[in-house]
Amino acid sequence: MDYATNPSDGVRIGYQVVGSGPPLMLVHGSLLTHVIWRTFGYAKVLRPNRTLILVDMRGHGRSDKPHEVDAYSMSSMVGDLTAVLDAVGVEKVDYWGYSFGARAGLTLTAHAPERVNSLIAGGGSHGSQAGAFDRLFFPGCADVLAERGMDGFITEWNEHRMFPVDDATRAAFAANDTDAMAAYFRASDAEPGLPDDALRGFDLPCLFYVGSEDRERLAAGRAAADLVPGAQFHLIEGFDHSTTPAASEEVLGVVTPFLGRHSPYVSGNT
User: Fold this and answer.
1) Nearest to 188 by CA among 92, 116, 245, 107
2) What residue spans define the domains of the chain?
């Protein structure tokens, strides 16, 4: 694991670089890590033709895990991502994020558009995050996380899910620092998001996808795609918010052609 340091607060961000070819930054969802891209087979498919920059966001994986709520602002996340790009020596990157990673990518694109060549946002939202985790998981989830730990959180979440928590997701969640995650949840709940005009001003190829059973993000993902000039929107049929990442065959079926068409690094594109 390599590390980049956010110069604004000194938080260290873990990342790995694998593969060869044009750079593609992959950013996971909440409570997960960069390993999820390997677990569900994305890295294996992509790395022969792409240099993958796999990031652990602050509070997650091997990155630093501050316990203060104010450490998890989206401006700090943008600083983290640009610090990683600087450390790798990449000026501009194709970006792919899911959920939290999609939200971070939308914010990065709004605030540092010169660093993003194309954007893929899965299960993401640009709007206010107030109540989002309570809707995605269950009411009072931050309090359960802080008071009962991750085992209590997963037990409660299973009571509210359409499908049981899969083993890979359970293992990734269980590895988290619960105090850091509780702080992150509470910071996200106060996050105002981006104004619609920010997305209307995007001037890059964008693809949005969302599970057809994702009750929290289906309308939000479609609304975001409608705001971005020329953006694509795809449904991943039969999957909800937490199971869509496991639908790698279906997801790659829409993402791979998009990358091939829109990356300026691919022969024949400009």
Assistant:
1) 107
2) 2-129+191-262
What is the rounded distance in angstroms from the CA atom of residue 221 to the CA atom of residue 248? 19
pLDDT single digits (tens) 111-128: 999 999 999 999 999 999
213 alpha-carbon distance from chain centroid: 19
Specify the pLDDT at position 164.
Answer: 82
The two tokens of residue 80 are 């983290």
Taking a C-beta distance cutoff of 8 angstroms, is the pair 182, 146 a contact? yes
Centre a 10 Å sphere on the Cβ of residue 92 and count the other Cβ atoms it contains: 17
Q: What CATH number labels 2-129+191-262?
A: 3.40.50.1820
Q: Is the separation of the CB atoms in 56 and 83 below 8 Å?
A: no
**What span, in angstroms and rounded, lies between the C-alpha atoms of 80 and 76?**
6
Q: Is 111 left (phi over 0), alpha (psi -120 to 50) or beta?
A: alpha
Q: Give the model confidence (pLDDT) of 126-152 as tens digits.
A: 999 999 899 888 999 999 998 999 999
Residue 63 to residue 116: CA distance in whole angstroms: 22
Rounded CA separation 119/183 (Å): 28
Mean pLDDT, each 10-residue run in order, the chain (270 residues) = 97 97 96 94 96 97 96 97 98 97 98 97 94 90 91 91 80 88 93 96 98 94 97 97 94 96 52
The span from the CA of 97 to the CA of 256, in Å, is: 14
Given the DSSP bridges, would you call strands 2-5 and 12-19 parallel, antiparallel or unpaired? antiparallel
Q: How far is CA 228 from CA 30, 185, 206, in A?
A: 24, 27, 8
Nearest residue to 12 via CA among 116, 112, 87: 87
Q: CB–CB of 218/212 below 8 Å? A: yes
